[in-house]
Amino acid sequence: MDTLQHFVSGELAALREKGVFRRPRVLETEQKATVVIDGHEVITLSSNNYLGLTVHPKLREAAIQAIEKYGVGSGSVRTIAGTMALHRELEEKLARFKHSEAALTFQSGYTTNLGVISALMQPTTDLIISDELNHASIIDGIRLNRTPRKVYPHKDMAGLRRVLVESQDISGKVMIVTDGVFSMDGDIAPLPEIVALAEEYGAFVMVDDAHASGVLGNGRGSTVHFGLEGRVALQVGTLSKGIGALGGYVACSQDVKDFLLQRARPVLFSTSHPPSVVATCIAAIDLLENDTSLVERLWENAHFFKRGLEQLGFNTGKSETPITPVIVGEGALAMQFSDRLFEEGVFAQGIVFPTVPADKCRVRTIVTALHTNEELTRALAVFEKVGKELHII
Ligand code: PMP
Q1: C-alpha radius of gyration, the chain, whole number
Q2: Cβ pair 213, 188 in contact under 8 A
Q3: Is residue 282 within 8 Å of 62, Cβ to Cβ?
Q4: For residues 38-45, average pLDDT
Q5: Nearest CA to 184 among 338, 367, 324, 329?
């Protein structure tokens, strides 16, 4: 029999040997463009705070007011005593924002994917067809109830058609699931083609817009971006990135929402959001419905920074969004690159296998609406200096 200590120390030694063991860095200030991390002032290119809403005065105010009026916790799961009027208000606003009939919130984007997929899909009859680069929370949702899964090559529509053709005899439902924006590469799913194929073969579509909400479609996500309202059965999103707080949701039909309220396990067995978080998210949606300037600023910054990296000669892969990878190859080099950038005042997280393929390790950059031109120009100068030093460019 093995011991816990022996197992853990062996695994840790292997990670250290590969140069990929990491302790999380510690943020000592609020999450904005220039921050103090582990005692160093750095420009951060590592948060998902796309629109800068983590520090927005209107959202802070909404949270404080909700604490004063409703306290700090909801005290129960949604289906027992934890559905507050605020939860209902947020869901109505989210449904309108996503141009959908209804919406249901969860504690996080992760639990949304777990809850939605495992409640709706049936292992004995159904099939899930999944892009090979889908997020881990989608994969975990599929694993949770063991529904058979087929994977198609990343964004390969001929590959998706092939899987649909060979699955014609499935007796139950067929779900095609994709990220709207892929989190490690920043490329956009070909949603119009996916929806057309789903309609041709009688499948339905679930899109995870964690990195598209607040970014595409004037902040409303990939379904609105492509004008596919009413044709995407399940639009999953997170409230922790573009929206700046915490949580997840699915925008769907009223019937799907009603069913999930009976069956989705994170709804049934895990306490609902505290009122301050819900009020924060309501304030965020109100803001985005009335003002697109933050989304516009995000895109100006994204174009500026991406162009800068490309002009310096970095390999930025297939990025089309504010997520821009700088692909360097080996894991140890990616980590060294990230460490040197940090020493020079830029925080861009190294991302290594198994999160990305072993020969496509990278630092991932994400610009936000909060970055100034001056900060991005300074960050580019640091990338140039360190990139040359490590012979990456
Ligand atoms: N889906 C995708 C595509 C993501 O990138 C993430 C966040 N890393 C999630 C879901 C999970 O969202 P959350 O952090 O709100 O749990």
Answers
A1: 21
A2: no
A3: yes
A4: 97
A5: 324
6 is catalytic: no
Task: Report yes or no: 271 and 82 within 8 Å, Cβ to Cβ.
Answer: yes
State residue 216's pLDDT score: 97
Is the Cβ atom of 275 under 6 angstroms away from ligand 1? no
Degrees to nearest 5, angle at CA 352 with 347 and 353: 165
Q: Are the CB atoms for 179 and 211 separated by under 8 Å?
A: yes
- Report residue 80 as tokens: 């027992």
Give the predicted TM-score (pTM) of the model. 0.95
Ligand 1 centroid–CA 391 distance in Å is 33
pLDDT tens profile 193-219 = 999 999 999 999 999 999 999 999 999
User: Could you report how far apart the first and last alpha carbons of the chain are, in Å?
Assistant: 50
pLDDT digits (tens, 9 = 90+) for 126-149: 999 999 999 999 999 999 989 999
Whole-angstrom CA distances from 197 to 119, 165, 204, 231 are 24, 10, 9, 12
Given the residues 211, 225, 273, 360, select the one marked as catalytic. Answer: 211
Segment 327-355, tens digit of pLDDT: 999 999 999 999 999 999 999 999 988 88
For residue 47, give both structure tokens. 């948060």
Tell me the C-alpha distance between 47 and 68, whole Å: 29
